[in-house]
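Q: How would the structure tokens look for this protein?
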Amino acid sequence: MRTLITGCFFPGFLLTASIFAAAQGDYKVISVADGGTISGTVKWSGPVPKELNFPVTKDPQICAPDGSKTVTLDRLIVGSEGGVANTIVYLKNISAGKALELPEQRRHLDQKHCRYIPHILLVPKNAALQMQSSDATLHTIHMDGAATYNLPFPFPNQISSRNMPTVGLVNLRCNGGHVWMNGEMMVVAHPYYAVTDENGRFEFTSVPPGTYQIVAWHEGWNLTGKEQAYDVLTERAVQRPVFSEPKTWEKSITVNANQPSTVNFVIGSK
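A: Here is the predicted structure in token form.
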């Protein structure tokens, strides 16, 4: 079983984006012959917040084909053993290391049943984000933060590509009236970023020996209210949910040559 909580835009977004950009700085690719590994987990402590449902107010036959009339989004996913998925873990003060390579599945965005898949994206600086929609309805991806685009997807399965030249956090949402759709993208300048899996696990390989600050970042999960948005197709005002600001946790970790290191995070409402 897993617990899911819906989510959307948060008021401290621009501040968070600037923190991410400042944390990365200049990065140099070097040969890492004696690198170590860092692995660990992000786990939840305490009662898991109640799952939040959001009403499907548009295209129910596409967005909720099971007839549920509500959707749950991946704002907070806690696995059966307490692992927290969709947490971004990264090294904050690393200036040199292996070449920038990130999972291909985190660089391709689909819009399916009016959800962003995957919910968390990782895209290298100056690389392209591939986007498409599997839905037979109009979606419009609106981005703000380190990238600013407003891209319509009127036809299914047509791929659109955009380069991401600026490091930082990007918020994604739909301006086509599907107000519950939300996702996050991190444009990064080094490879030591990971998104935790369904068990809350992450791993970095070929890390140069040294002492680093390692950060766990979660987008936040509390509903704080609603804001007025705009459906570009119907030209009507709609109400979009607003969620709390992201949360971060930070630790120091020392990596020794050719040795494994472990760091575990415990997060929660308190």
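The first helix runs from residue 13 to 24.

The first strand starts at residue 28 and ends at 29.

Upvote if useful.
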